[in-house]
């Protein structure tokens, strides 16, 4: 596996929102979701993820409630709000455009 | 466990618990995460211990991560609760606005009431700020500037009771204080006193601007060169007077213009400096322009300033050293660290040491005091300022009435909405939440009222400035920054006050029980209504007392017929270079001719020439009376002398009590005669036949002037004075003083005749360059200003309060009737007549008002003592005034109760019994 990439500042929130856009999950579920999707390439401490959760909660992009897992364990479930979805859409568009522009510049052949 | 109120303890528990709960939740989340991670790793083949280590590694150092996450969690909670609070406040705001829109009548009334109350207060604050709180503009450190007053000992005239209320309580009857002084006092103090950084003098004048027939009177001031440096004012353009220009021997013809005058008269043209303008017939060079708003140490406007020496030349001979004339005011700036008391002692010592007039005069032992410049003549606060203080009280009262009204309305409205409140509580709204809802509503009403109040304030302030206090130079706008600040503060306080009652009721959950307790149906409205009636009664009584004072002041006997007399003055054309005696002779000849022409006019009843007139100028010369080594000194001073022609007493309407008036032949060169006033007769020759007496005027060697008549006392300068000795001599026999005016008694109104009088006088001779005529009343009316001010403001306040209180009573009665529909139905069904029902309701309203009136009268009586000094010839307990105020209030109470009473009478018994 290639070296792990540190997460660019500010994008963790968007990634969490994307994860939650698939449905309500608790903290560990989101962690594994991200690990699966990125194939382990992203290097992020688990606690940073929870920081992201609390941040998003404070901004009401995400709402949290205590629930029960399949194994009858008490877990805190996070779900995305309407405001969160809108934020996700806007950020995604912006990020993709940015990435396209930057990679366009960087991949131009060296003269 | 200390005893804490349950509600407060709950609040604390909530706060602490939330903190603990959040921490526990974070722990639980971390624990679950680690547990699941360990299971995942174990599934991948790790041993239990290795899995645990790896799980913690991936999580991040637990010792740091946990507290940091806890902190984040608390931050999150904090933000979210703030957001919640904000959202619910917004919700409350929207709800309050919706509620107001649904009840526009209630909203309009409440907002208007508060707007009036807050606006009136803001306006009065602006006025009082200028009159009382801020010093005069452009005066550096006004608290270090003092005004000098002179106090001398005087005797009370025998057999005369002195009831002058104008003297400060406690001042002995044998001491008289006056504020004006002669140039000699200013000079002596300035040269020799040691407690002052500088000393100056000033006076208000009325110069004529321009020449000839088109000249007009303007507001002027004369001041020493030191005046401007003492005050620390800087000219807007040019400069103020140089010491040389104010020299006693040769004052310069210079002038400094006031800012407003410069703008209105010369269009703010800076090139006017250096050119000349005509004042009193002479060209004066403009050397500077005063800054905007500068009026010296008083507040009335000044158009032009001339050097004191220049002005003083026209006052009297030997003006630099004479002790016989007082025409200016002396002010000083205290040196650092010197108290007013020490300065007064120094000034008194200096004066007594430098006094060089006759040693027997009371002035030799006079006391000189340094008083704050806010005080006027006599060391007392001006009546206007005292009235202004009371005005603040009036506006505060109006505001209180308004607030109590609105609070009452809000409370009854809250009780009316008890159903809705019950639903909210059932849905889980806390009591604090409900209280906040009501406070939001009241703050919204207050805010809207506050915004509207600015308009009210601007209107009222403009009204007061332009109709009541026109002589003051106003520089700030009616709604200045300070006024705005006050309005904002008052609005906030008002909003909180009116919101307290409904909020408190809501918080205590007592709204539910409000209706079960039958007493509340009137209880909620009774106390505020009675309170309002009390305050309104007090205001109306105050208004009545001031109106009464105004009326009495206007008609108080002055010793002459002030509304019938026209005063005329003449400005003379130059006669070239001829000796002064010849000039005087020519002028007198023209004057006498003018008098004859005026007397012959069809519309003139009588006319006379006089030197020394009431509310004009006063003169005193030495008098020697056989049998007296030195004359008794009366409170009013004197003896004062006037030189008059034969018809004088009939012209002005001063009654002859004994003897005769002067004949046409008596004048210069004939036997010396005199006429004395009542006080003089009684003081000098009590119990004797006055008509056999005589007096020597001017010197002991003069022939004795026989007393041929006694006239009633006439006022010299004020509505109320200490009695003084006055005597009259035939015109032409005077020496040492001069300044003739014409007194005319036209058949009709003096004002209407003034234009004609001017024409007749100016046509007499080319020597008369310009004549001016004005009704004598015009010199007296300004003295009525304080009572006019008081009457107007108390009337306005009283009417306002009456309206607001009546509307409040109406709403309380309406509400009460609405709640008692069932009861009314029962009564009517049982046979009660409509008349009885109406009478019952009206009686309830009137009883509330009556209780308030009685309390208001009691209040007025206790406060009356302090009001006494402001009134004129009126007792604060005047029964007529109290009677009228009572009747007016009761009538208003009846009117306010009648409508709801009629509604009660028209209740349909069947429907009423079926409802509820």
Task: Provide the fold topology.
The complex is a heterodimer of chains A (111) and B (916).
Chain A lengths: L4 E2 L4 H10 L4 E2 H12 L3 E2 L2 H13 L3 E7 L5 E7 L1 H25 L5
Parallel strand pairs in A: 1-3
Antiparallel strand pairs in A: 2-5, 4-5
Chain B lengths: L5 H39 L3 H12 L2 H41 L1 H30 L11 E9 L21 E4 L1 E2 L1 H10 L3 E10 L2 E2 L6 E2 L2 E4 L1 H7 L5 E2 L15 E4 L1 H8 L9 E4 L2 E8 L14 E4 H5 L15 E7 L5 H15 L12 E6 L2 E2 L3 E2 L1 H34 L1 H9 L4 H38 L12 H27 L3 H4 L5 H36 L10 E7 L7 H21 L3 E8 L11 E2 L15 E5 L3 H5 L3 E4 L13 E5 H7 L9 E4 L6 E8 L14 E5 L9 E7 L3 H15 L3 E8 L1 H4 L4 H35 L1 H9 L4 H34 L11 H27 L3 H6 L2
Parallel strand pairs in B: 7-12, 9-11, 20-25, 22-24
Antiparallel strand pairs in B: 1-2, 1-13, 1-14, 3-13, 4-7, 4-13, 5-6, 8-11, 9-12, 10-11, 15-16, 17-26, 17-27, 18-20, 18-26, 19-23, 21-24, 22-25, 23-24
Helix pairs in contact in B: 1-2, 1-3, 3-12, 4-10, 4-12, 4-13, 5-9, 10-13, 10-15, 10-21, 12-13, 15-21, 15-23, 15-24, 16-19, 21-24, 23-24
What does this structure look like?
The complex is a heterodimer of chains A (111) and B (916). Chain A is of the alpha+beta class. Chain A contains four helices and five strands. Chain A has helices at residues 11-20, 27-38, 46-58, 82-106; strands at 5-6, 25-26, 42-43, 62-68, 74-80. Chain A is globular. The mean pLDDT of chain A is 89. Chain B has 916 residues and is of the alpha+beta class. Chain B is 52% helix and 15% strand. Chain B has 25 helices and 27 strands. Chain B is elongated, with a radius of gyration of 39 Å. Mean pLDDT of chain B is 84; it is low at 157-173 and 514-522. At the A-B interface, α2, α3 and β5 of A face α1 and α3 of B.
């Amino acid at each position: 596996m290639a070296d792990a990439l540190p997460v660019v500042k500010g994008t963790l929130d968007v990634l969490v929102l994307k994860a939650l856009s698939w449905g309500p999950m608790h903290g560990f579920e989101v962690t594994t979701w991200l690990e699966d999707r990125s194939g382990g390439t992203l290097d992020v401490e688990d606690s940073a993820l929870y920081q992201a959760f609390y941040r998003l909660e404070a901004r009401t992009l995400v709402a949290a409630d205590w629930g029960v897992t399949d194994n009858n364990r008490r877990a805190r479930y996070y779900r995305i709000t309407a405001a969160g979805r809108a934020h996700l859409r806007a950020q995604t568009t912006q990020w993709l455009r940015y990435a396209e522009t930057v990679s366009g510049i960087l991949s131009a052949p060296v003269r | 466990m200390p005893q804490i109120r349950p509600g407060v303890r709950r609040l604390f528990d909530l706060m602490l618990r939330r903190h603990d709960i959040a921490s526990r939740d974070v722990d639980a989340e971390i624990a679950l995460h680690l547990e699941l991670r360990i299971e995942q790793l174990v599934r991948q083949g790790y041993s239990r211990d290795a899995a645990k280590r790896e799980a913690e590694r991936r999580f991040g150092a637990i010792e740091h991560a946990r507290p940091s996450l806890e902190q984040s969690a608390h931050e999150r909670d904090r933000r979210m609760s703030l957001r919640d609070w904000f959202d619910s406040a917004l919700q409350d705001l929207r709800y309050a606005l919706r509620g107001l829109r649904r009840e526009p009548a209630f909203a309009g009334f409440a907002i208007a009431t508060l707007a009036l109350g807050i606006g009136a207060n803001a306006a009065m604050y602006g006025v009082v700020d200028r009159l009382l709180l801020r010093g005069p503009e452009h005066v550096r450190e006004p608290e270090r500037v003092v005004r000098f007053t002179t106090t001398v000992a005087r005797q009370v005239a025998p057999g005369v009771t002195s009831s002058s209320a104008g003297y400060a309580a406690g001042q002995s009857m044998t001491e008289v204080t006056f504020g004006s002084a002669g140039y000699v006092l200013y000079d002596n103090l300035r040269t020799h006193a040691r407690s002052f950084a500088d000393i100056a003098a000033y006076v208000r004048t009325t110069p004529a601007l321009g020449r000839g027939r088109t000249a007009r009177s303007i507001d002027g001031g004369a001041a020493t060169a030191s005046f401007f440096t003492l005050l620390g004012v800087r000219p807007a353009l040019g400069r103020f007077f140089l010491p040389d220009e104010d020299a006693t021997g040769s004052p310069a013809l210079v002038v400094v213009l006031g800012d407003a005058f410069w703008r209105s008269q010369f269009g703010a043209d800076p090139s006017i400096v250096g050119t000349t303008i005509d004042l009193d017939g002479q060209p004066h060079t403009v050397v500077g322009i005063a800054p905007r708003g500068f009026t010296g140490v008083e507040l009335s406007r000044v158009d032009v300033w001339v050097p004191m020496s220049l002005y003083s030349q026209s006052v009297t001979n030997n003006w630099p050293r004479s002790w016989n004339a007082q025409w200016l005011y002396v002010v000083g700036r205290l040196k650092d660290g010197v108290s007013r008391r020490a300065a007064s002692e120094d000034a008194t010592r200096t004066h007594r040491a430098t006094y060089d007039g006759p040693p027997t005069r009371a002035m030799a032992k006079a006391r000189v005091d340094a008083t704050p410049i806010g005080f006027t003549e006599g060391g007392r606060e001006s009546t206007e300022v005292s009235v202004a203080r009371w005005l603040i009280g009036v506006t505060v009262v109006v505001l209180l009435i308004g607030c109590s009204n609105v609070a009452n309305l809000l409370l009854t409205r809250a009780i009316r909405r008890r159903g809705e409140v019950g639903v909210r509580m059932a849905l889980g709204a806390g009591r604090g939440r409900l209280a906040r809802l009501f406070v939001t509503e009241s703050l919204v009403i207050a805010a809207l009222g506050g915004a509207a109040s600015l308009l009210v304030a601007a209107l009222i302030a403009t009204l007061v400035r332009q109709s009541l206090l026109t002589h003051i130079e106003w520089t700030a706008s009616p709604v200045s920054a300070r006024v705005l600040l006050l309005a904002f503060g008052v609005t906030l306080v008002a909003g909180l006050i009116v919101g307290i009652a409904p909020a408190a009721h809501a918080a205590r959950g007592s709204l539910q029980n409000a209706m079960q307790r039958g007493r509340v149906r009137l209880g909620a409205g009774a106390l505020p209504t009675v309170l309002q009636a009390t305050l309104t009664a007090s205001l109306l009584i105050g208004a009545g007392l001031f109106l009464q004072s105004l009326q009495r002041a206007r008609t108080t006997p002055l010793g002459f017929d002030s509304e019938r007399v026209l005063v005329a003055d003449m400005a003379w054309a130059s006669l070239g270079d001829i000796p002064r005696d010849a000039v005087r002779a020519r002028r007198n000849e023209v004057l006498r001719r003018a008098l004859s022409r005026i007397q012959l006019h069809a519309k003139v009843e009588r006319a006379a020439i006089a030197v020394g007139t009431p509310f004009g100028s006063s003169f005193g010369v030495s008098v020697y009376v056989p049998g007296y080594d030195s004359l008794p000194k009366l409170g009013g001073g004197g003896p004062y002398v006037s030189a008059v022609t034969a018809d004088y007493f009939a012209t002005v309407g001063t009654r002859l009590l004994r003897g005769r008036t002067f004949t046409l032949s008596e004048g210069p060169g004939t036997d010396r005669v005199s006429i004395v006033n009542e006080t003089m007769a009684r003081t000098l020759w009590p119990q004797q036949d006055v008509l056999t007496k005589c007096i020597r005027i001017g010197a002991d060697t003069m022939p004795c002037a026989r007393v041929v008549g006694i006239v009633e006392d006439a006022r010299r300068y004020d509505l109320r004075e200490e009695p003084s000795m006055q005597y009259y001599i035939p015109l032409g026999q005077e020496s040492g003083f001069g300044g003739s005016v014409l007194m005319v008694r036209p058949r009709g109104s003096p004002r209407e005749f003034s234009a004609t009088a001017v024409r007749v006088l100016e046509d007499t001779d080319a020597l008369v360059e310009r004549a001016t005529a004005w009704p004598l009343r015009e010199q007296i009316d300004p003295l009525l200003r304080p009572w006019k001010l008081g009457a107007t403001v108390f009337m306005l306040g009283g009417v306002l309060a009456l309206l607001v209180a009546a509307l409040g009573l109406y709403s309380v009665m309406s509400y009460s009737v609405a709640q008692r529909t069932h009861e009314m139905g029962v009564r009517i069904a049982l046979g009660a007549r409509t008349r009885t029902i109406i009478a019952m309701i009206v009686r309830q309203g009137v009883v509330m008002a009556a209780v308030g009136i009685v309390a208001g009268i009691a209040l007025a009586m206790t406060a009356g003592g302090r009001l006494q000094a402001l009134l004129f010839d009126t007792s604060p307990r005047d029964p007529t005034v109290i009677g009228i105020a009572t009747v007016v209030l009761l009538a208003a109470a009846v009117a306010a109760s009648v409508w709801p009473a009629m509604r009660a009478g028209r209740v349909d018994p069947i429907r009423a019994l079926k409802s509820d």
